Amino acid sequence: MMGDNGNIIEVRDLKVRYPIFGGLFLSKVAEIKAVDGVTFDMERGETLGMVGESGCGKTTIGRAIVNILQATAPDVVVEGNIFLNNEDGQVDLAKMKRKEMRPYRSQIQMIFQDPFASLNPRLTVARIVEEPLLIHTKMSRTERMERIGWLLNKVGLSPEQAQRYPHEFSGGQRQRIGIARALATNPKVIIADEPVSALDVSIQAQVINLLQDLQDEFGLTFLFIAHDLSVVEHISKRIAVMYLGDLVELGPSTIVYSNPKHPYTKALLSAVPLPDPKGAKARERIILKGDVPSPLAKPSGCGFRTRCPIARESCAKEVPQLRDYGDGTKVACPWV
Amino acid sequence: MHRDEILLEVKNLKTYFRTEAGLGKAIDGVDFNVRKGEVLGIVGESGSGKSVTALSLIRLIPNPPGEIVSGEVLFEGKDLLKVPLEEMYKVRGRDIAMIFQEPMTSLNPVFSIGFQVEEIIRHHGFVRESEVFDHAVKMLEHVGIPDAAKRMKDYPHQFSGGMRQRVMIAIALACDPAILIADEPTTALDVTIQAQIIDLMLSLQERRKEAAIMIITHDLAVIAETCQRVIVMYGGMIQEVAEAEPLFEEPLHPYTIGLLKSLPRPDLQKQHRLYTIPGTVPSIIEFPAGCKFSNRCESVMPICSRVEPKLTEVEDGRWVRCHLFSSSPEEEGE
């Protein structure tokens, strides 16, 4: 069964809820629905871009796939399935305990947004990149050192820099160290959460190129989470648009960008500033009213209806389902 | 250009930081004008000196370690760098207002929103005491805070990031300043909120036609969308000055060219690999001698590492600091 449908990850009706405790007896007073029933696949070797604004659940999805939500929120409730298709068949990562997850961690690795916070300042670069090898492999010390040198070389650093500490590196170089660490165990899937957002423009391009080169060389599958739509479009084959815990549009990036269907996707894309003063004047911008509602007070029915320019009365009652539009995209709005 | 079109004139501004590692020349001789009614962009990467320039104009450089070592900032016939601090207190907020990047940290968490908006109106005696509350509410309504009168009593933590940035804008616009300086005003915000915030800032010019807006950002796209004139900074110096359209259509300085080429441009042709500027931005104490960009420049010539090029006017209103455009680079080198 493996590999025949070409999907490496299959996410089915994923729901992630954070209970909020308060009051005298610290009872559950409310619940944040960070992800509210999301279904999508990641094809082998593709880059799936995930976009949306803060609070839309894109980071939570990434962290649910690598199963690290519990590390920061022990009370988190995860429902649904996250299937990983590997050589031994299909496994569901969604509800795995720490120990059960361990053999699969080496296959799914993560690159974090903040290259200043995601590297331990007390460890040398060699030690940082070595850590996953110590945990997941039985390599000897010589083998590990050889591998570290090779990895640093791959990400454009010199093996001589291995004995230095993170503070001796610039932001772009630190992100390269993070990438080397993610690659250490030969993963198949990499979840990249805002990997270039903290970098300067001229450095951003270097890291994006590096990620693409590594993907070509190792056949990696990326979930590329970012709020910068131009970067996501550049790197992604398909795009998933999130709003307030819901997946509102999913499809090939060329189609989603040239012909967005969901009113939120339309507004989002029209709001993206372009480095082209003439085009900017010609473009019609849809400026949405207000802010994204708090996930604590998510509107009934369609989550977007409070800001939607085409909302109708019935939008408050029914939660729109993702449906095939016919051109390879899926849209969660009945009116388009 | 007529002299009376100029609102603010900056001459040979130098701000240095004394650190243990050495002297950091954060900005090293910056000259520019702000014209009436314009939207001026200052763009650059981290360490380019763009924020230090803005902070120097209103003398908010922390001293020590920073110090404005030379220069003039001429505004309404006065040199703002020489006036007594008491006078600066009157200028800040009334004549020159500033919006900072971090909406989370630039409001005081222990005072109500209303108090913080009223404070500036009262400080400058902008309206009579009996009208201060109403004016504050009007400002919050102007920036789109729903139920403004009620929310005056709320505290910053009860507002979202976008809402806080709106409050910052309400405070900045409260006294209809002549110049609004916005330092990375949209960087911390989501895309759909960004557009709203930019529109609000530009609304100052509806309230006061001759007001100028300075937008300081690393985001070239935000510059392209909002600014008429652009200053490109690198290594604490102005590298290029141009109107927005020609700058984006035909950048002249190799740094500007590199920056624009390294942006993903999905609206144009889809390319597999992005152009990259080699190397990284050095720390401010490590910039090379001669041209600050010479160690990363693809068009570098022998002279570049020896002689700092001068900012030269190559066309009307278009300035470039590069030996490729110096009239006689060889002579200058001798």
Quick tags:
heterodimer; A: 336 residues; alpha/beta; eight-stranded mixed beta sheet; four-stranded antiparallel beta sheet; B: 334 residues; 12 helices; 12 strands; 29% helix
Largest sheet of chain A: 8 strands, mixed
Fraction of residues in H or I helices of chain A: 25-40%
Q: What composes the largest sheet of chain B?
A: 8 strands, mixed
Q: What percentage of the residues of chain A does DSSP assign to strands (E)?
A: 15-25%
Spans of chain B of at least 5 consecutive residues whose pLDDT stays below 50 are none
What proportion of the residues of chain B is helical, as a percent range? 25-40%
- What number is the mean pLDDT of chain B? 89
Order of helices and strands of chain B: EEEHEEHEHHHHEHHEHEEHHEEH
Shape of chain A: globular
Strand content of chain B: 15-25%
Helix count of chain B equals: 12
Give the overall pLDDT of chain A as a whole number: 90
Secondary-structure content class of chain B: alpha/beta
Structural class of chain A: alpha/beta
Q: Total number of helical segments of chain A?
A: 11
Instruction: Provide the spatial order of strands within the biggest beta sheet of chain A.
Output: 6-7-8-3-9-10-12-11
